[in-house]
Amino acid sequence: MDSKTVEALLTQFHSLVDVSKTSLLISLLAITFNPTAWNIVARNEYRNKTITRIFGGNARYGCYFLALSIFSFGMLRDSLYRKALLEQPQQAILPKEYAIIVPVVLFTLGQLFVVSSTWALGITGTFLGDYFGILMDHRVEGFPFNVLRDPMYVGSTMCFAATALWYERPAGLIVTLYVYVLYVIALRFEGPFTDMIYSRRAEKAKAKAL
């Protein structure tokens, strides 16, 4: 690839993504903060019971507090993302006849996966109750988990993409790709740790049965 081609690509990129906007950086930081911080907090809770102790030893109250925190910061993250998009260059992404229907369907499906996941898992199942010692009796296998392995993360990513398409901001699609990569990384840490928690419970139950 020669220098002229590289220069042309960079020019095209900068016409679609304004990296000078502080709002874009803030949005990326907020997106990074959520899965990173909650995994760190949850692991600390599993090992040290910090939040549980703050709530007088009541693990359920501690989990509810974390759930409220995660939900609140999620709303803030979404607000910062929308603000960042509105300050980015606008350009039609989809053909005119699909410009409304595609993001609406994508957002609806994304929200369906997120809401139905929460409904199936419950508050403690959704918001890291496992790390508080509030374990589920059995694996949830109904919708949407019979369709997707990680429907909440997939649904959230779909909503990011839908928002970018709705506002016709190509920068939003790049942010969506970043969200997807971040979630994949988070799952590589979260999944095995959760499996370990349930494996230890199974080992303890087996030991008691002997």
TrEMBL record:
It catalyses: a 1,2-diacyl-sn-glycero-3-phospho-N,N-dimethylethanolamine + S-adenosyl-L-methionine = a 1,2-diacyl-sn-glycero-3-phosphocholine + S-adenosyl-L-homocysteine + H(+); a 1,2-diacyl-sn-glycero-3-phospho-N-methylethanolamine + S-adenosyl-L-methionine = a 1,2-diacyl-sn-glycero-3-phospho-N,N-dimethylethanolamine + S-adenosyl-L-homocysteine + H(+). It is a multi-pass membrane protein. It comes from the Eukaryota. Keywords: Endoplasmic reticulum, Lipid biosynthesis, Lipid metabolism, Membrane, Methyltransferase, Mitochondrion, Phospholipid biosynthesis, Phospholipid metabolism, S-adenosyl-L-methionine, Transferase, Transmembrane, Transmembrane helix. Residues 77-103, 189-210 are cytoplasmic. Its main location: endoplasmic reticulum. One of its GO terms (molecular function) is phosphatidyl-N-methylethanolamine N-methyltransferase activity. It is found in: Endoplasmic reticulum membrane; Mitochondrion membrane. The chain crosses the membrane at residues 23-41, 61-80, 100-129, 173-191. S-adenosyl-L-methionine binds at T108, L109, G110, E190, G191. Residues 1-21, 43-54, 125-167 are lumenal. Residues 22-42 dip into the membrane without crossing it. One of its GO terms (biological process) is methylation. Its EC number is 2.1.1.71. GO terms for cellular component: endoplasmic reticulum membrane; mitochondrial membrane. Pathway: Lipid metabolism; Phospholipid metabolism; phosphatidylcholine biosynthesis. Catalyzes the second two steps of the methylation pathway of phosphatidylcholine biosynthesis, the SAM-dependent methylation of phosphatidylmonomethylethanolamine (PMME) to phosphatidyldimethylethanolamine (PDME) and of PDME to phosphatidylcholine (PC). Belongs to the class VI-like SAM-binding methyltransferase superfamily. PEMT/PEM2 methyltransferase family. This is Phosphatidyl-N-methylethanolamine N-methyltransferase.
